[in-house]
Design goal:
The protein is of the alpha+beta class. It has one domain: Alpha-Beta Plaits, CATH 3.30.70.100. The protein is 26% helix and 26% strand. It has 4 helices and 9 strands, in the order ββαββααββββαβ. A hairpin with a 5-residue loop joins strand 3 and strand 4.
């Protein structure tokens, strides 16, 4: 696990909503929201997503809010290969129009969250349940560094060895219940479509 200097989540592509199998690579960013800043953070993320959609950012990402534990937002960025990741990041970073439009929101974002944590992970099929990836999932439980793979989960492993299990569930209540079984390591998450740029989410309830 490492601290990230990234100011905005939309720096890499995500096609979680469209995929029918786990991505080969998954970048996961956790941002803890500063106390009493939730409303300002939400407005800022709405604007970031609006800019990315309007200017057709060469990136798609999914935002997820914690519904158990501390107030945090998680971002999923998926790739099929390192070359795909590098190409799409480069396209984003070389687009001066998009960067200029996002700059004020990036500056504001720094005041609304603590230093983010980034996990660059690789899917581990041998340690995952078959068919563990649900393309239409709207609720997840994320578990960090469980000794053994979590039941019904997809296991990803970070570059530094951190193990991350993702379990998709049917409802918020189920996510909270599953996370409560290991509250130190696990967090229940709900997809936030209005902060996401994955096209398949844009007709979803906010």
């Amino acid at each position: 696990m490492r601290r990230s200097a990234l100011a905005i989540a939309c720096v890499s592509p995500l096609i979680v909503g469209a995929q029918r199998k786990p991505p080969a690579l998954l970048d996961i960013v956790q941002e803890r929201v500063v106390a009493d800043s939730a409303d300002a953070y939400a407005r800022n993320e709405d604007e970031i997503a609006r800019v990315c959609r309007t200017l057709h950012c060469p990136v798609h990402y999914v935002a997820l809010e914690s519904v158990s534990g501390e107030n945090a937002v998680w971002w999923f960025n998926a790739y099929e290969s390192a070359s795909e990741r590098d190409t799409l990041r480069r396209q984003f970073q070389q687009n001066a129009t998009i960067l200029a439009a996002l700059r004020p929101f990036a500056a504001r974002k720094k005041t609304l969250r603590l230093a983010p944590l980034t996990f660059s992970t690789t899917f581990r099929p041998a340690q995952s349940r078959p068919n563990c990836w649900r393309a239409d999932a709207r609720f997840y439980v994320i578990t960090i560094d469980a000794a053994t793979p979590v039941a019904n989960g997809c296991r990803f492993q970070a570059d530094d060895g951190t193990r991350i299990d993702l379990v998709s569930v049917a409802s918020r209540d189920e996510a909270v219940r599953v996370a409560a079984a290991d509250p130190v390591r696990s967090t229940a998450l709900a997809v936030r479509p209005s902060w996401s740029t994955e096209p398949s989410l844009q007709s979803s309830p906010q």
